[in-house]
Amino acid sequence: MINSPKMGVLMLRISHNDVEKILWHAAVCYPAECCGILAGRKLGEEYVVERVYPARNMLESSFEYRVNPEDQVRIFMDAEADGLEVVGFYHSHPLGEAYWSSLDEERSKLWPGYIFLVVSHKTGSLRAYLRKEDETVEVNVEISTFTL
Ligand SMILES: [Zn+2]
Question: What is the CATH number of the domain that holds 133?
């Protein structure tokens, strides 16, 4: 089932290189969903991704993911050690479009305040959502060519 959260005012800024990296990860994991973690910083209403960390999907499923807990701990520590903040998670939809599924809605409830970036392996499109305490809003995505 597809949810359609309303578009908010927030912006997710991610570099073209990092998008390529996520799409590459989606291709490598196909036909399973890939997943990973986005680190960077929050500047007002803007989330800036400065580093993409691929992680293992412990479910190895085409329809859902769960970030391997060891990877998660290692990545959170690595990001913190480099002065970055974990701003969210990404995962792929191997067979479908980039949309916010009922499962995404359900699973994200554990992570209020985090961004969820969904990419479609099929079309290469991507959409981002901010999980809030009691709702989810869509976030504008700006892909930039800047290098950090
Ligand atoms: Zn999903």
Answer: 3.40.140.10
